[in-house]
Write a structure and sequence with these properties.
Largest sheet: 9 strands, mixed
Strand content: 15-25%
Structural class: alpha+beta
Number of helices: 8
Shape: globular
Low-confidence stretches: 9-23
Helix content: 40-55%
Number of strands: 9
Order of helices and strands: HHEHEHHEEEHEEEHHE
């Protein structure tokens, strides 16, 4: 079955280039996630200030995000039939208090997504029969990256709700970034690509693999994305958690098993030349101040 959403987005995005030959037009995904990134000027050179959006758009244009057309069970979405079926009943029970929870939508989505991620992470860790120090699930992180625009240095920043580490933090080894829906009216389903793009840029600059996953969710609907080394992205969505829980759990489990595979069982050598990806690029992933 073809991922019709990806196919439609591909044709819509490429239409201006095909009809009007606009090679510099910012791709759909880049325009979609630009508002997630803020650019702050950190050097003074006497030049007029440039708007944050202009700087961010320039960064996203240099990255060259492009849609990757895949079928729903192809490439990164080919999770196979393996799943933690025995644990799904327990995960559903863990989530039950939040299905009918009251309060702000973001609070409810945070409870649902956090509980699901932690439940699957604990089960995968149990299956692995080891605790790898470099595989960690953390919450509330700020991604920061220096960027030069027309001779002026800026610092790009964006925040994420969860990150899954799969290696040395100094090497920015991230397997998954998660962004929660901020308001009922928000529709930026590709917003995780903002932080993914920044980490991708930093990892590629250091000559390292930059493959990673993203997730955007309101607690009920789960939109996954995959970014490869060529800055090509693919998406797949599962609507209604209560109906698609096995599919969601299976994919999260797949991502977390890949994180363990990437991290290995140690030892973890220093980066080549002793210089980490963070040191080479200036990119950092830290707790918000």
């Amino acid at each position: 079955m073809v991922n019709t959403g990806e196919l439609t987005r591909y044709w819509v995005e490429s239409l201006p280039q095909r009809l009007f030959h606009l090679p510099n037009r910012l791709p759909y995904a880049a325009r979609h996630c630009c508002p997630e990134i803020q650019a702050v000027r950190i050097s003074e050179n006497g030049k007029p200030a440039t708007s944050s959006l202009t700087v961010v758009q320039d960064f996203m244009r240099t990255l060259g995000l492009a849609p990757l057309r895949l079928e729903n069970h192809e490439g990164p979405w080919a999770t196979g039939v393996e799943s933690i079926a025995a644990a799904i009943a327990q995960i559903r029970q863990d989530l039950a208090p939040y299905y009918t929870g009251h309060g702000p939508p973001r609070q409810r989505s945070k409870q649902l997504v956090s509980t699901l991620l932690l439940s699957v992470f604990n089960e995968v860790t149990r299956q692995q029969q080891l605790q790898t120090p470099t595989v960690q699930l953390e919450s509330y992180r700020t991604v920061s990256l220096p960027y030069h625009y027309h001779g002026t240095e800026y610092r790009l920043t964006c925040t994420v709700d969860h990150v899954l580490w799969c290696g040395l933090k100094s090497d920015l080894a991230i397997s998954l970034v998660v962004t929660l829906k901020k308001s009922a009216m928000e529709t930026r389903m590709l917003s995780p690509l903002a932080s993914m793009a920044m980490i991708h840029h930093a990892r590629k600059r250091a000559g390292k693999s930059a493959v990673m996953y993203g997730l955007y969710s309101d607690g009920d609907n789960y939109h996954f994305m995959y970014l490869n080394d060529q800055a090509e992205y693919s998406t797949i969505s599962f609507m209604r958690l209560d109906e698609r829980l096995p599919d969601i759990v299976r994919l999260v489990e797949h991502i977390m098993h890949e994180a363990y595979q990437a991290a290995g069982s140690g030892p973890w050598p220093m980066p080549m030349g002793g210089i980490s990806a963070s040191a080479l690029s200036g990119c950092t992933i830290t707790s918000p101040t």
